[in-house]
From TrEMBL, chains A, B:
High-level lineage: Bacteria, Pseudomonadati, Thermodesulfobacteriota, Desulfuromonadia, Desulfuromonadales
Chain ranges of the CYTH domain: 2-149
Matches recorded under SMART domains: CYTH
Pfam families on file: CYTH
Species per Swiss-Prot/TrEMBL record: Geoalkalibacter subterraneus
Record's protein name: Adenylate cyclase
InterPro entries, per the entry: CYTH-like_dom_sf, CYTH_domain, NeuTTM/CthTTM-like
Length: 162, 162
């Protein structure tokens, strides 16, 4: 078992970029998005990863992650995963003794940029970087599985329509 | 990629049992059952297996299978999988140059017994053992995912109700 405990924030400006130590391109999709959890396939540069996530309870969820052959991951993304796929560049940014991940989305979620940090325990005290804004932990609109069903580009067009 | 090509039959009597060369106990569940496919977790004796299956087209479907830690499989079965779980004893029965698998269900599917044989290609000629009855390949009632939603024990009670 692994328990995933993470917090998620919106981003202010680009100051995080100078502190970024690495970046990778993620192409990911969901084989299923259900009430029990999600099954995610990821291509991280040239690595394939299959992840089963349980239901979210606050900032905590059960998570099982396995490396799989890159050809399997690519084929599942092409043949099985729900459309649209999620595509984003992930930048690793060390801050306050923790490793923050800044995700810059492209494709149908272009314009969205969020920072995530993984914690060792719920309620753990953390120092917030100056470049993070509002916390969106637990806001279902920002789940990657929600960004498949309602990509960020459609949030804006709905606002314009009003 | 793996393409799974298999045919499934009902069983007549117990003559298959004398020819069975091995048997194992399977406890399995589904993390998701969707229109795109299913995500299955299996405990086969003391081995854990995670399987992603695409949609069925005739006797063929995309299938990806990975061995996972037995503790993960047990926990996913306990915590994440849709109820009821499927429990069955699988007997391996060589016949006509092929390996037949005879599944004897217990629990909520007790009374159901089916034989499956995996083929190398669709349309492959096979010799049928004398102990198989009607073919049920492609009959969705006999999918293991259907046996979760509508276990065999409930088929009989519905017949009795009429």
């Amino acid at each position: 078992m692994a328990l995933e405990i993470e917090r998620k924030f919106l981003i202010h400006g680009m100051d995080w970029k100078n502190a970024a130590t690495s970046c990778s391109f993620l192409r990911q999709g969901f084989v299923s998005i259900g009430s029990i959890g999600v099954v995610r396939v990821r291509l991280i540069d040239d690595q394939g990863v299959l992840t089963i996530k349980g239901p979210t309870r606050g900032a905590v969820r059960l998570e099982y992650e396995y490396e799989i052959p890159v050809e399997d991951a690519a084929e599942m993304l092409d043949e099985l995963c729900i459309r649209p796929l999620i595509e984003k560049t992930r930048h690793c940014v060390p801050f306050g003794g923790l490793l923050w991940e800044v995700d810059v989305f492209v494709g149908e979620n272009e314009g969205l940029c969020v920072a995530e940090v993984e914690l060792e325990q719920e309620g753990q005290q953390i120092e917030l970087p100056p470049w993070v804004g509002a916390e969106v932990t637990g806001d279902p609109r920002y789940y990657n599985s929600s960004l498949v069903r309602k990509p960020f580009s459609r949030w804006r067009s709905e606002k314009t329509d009003r």
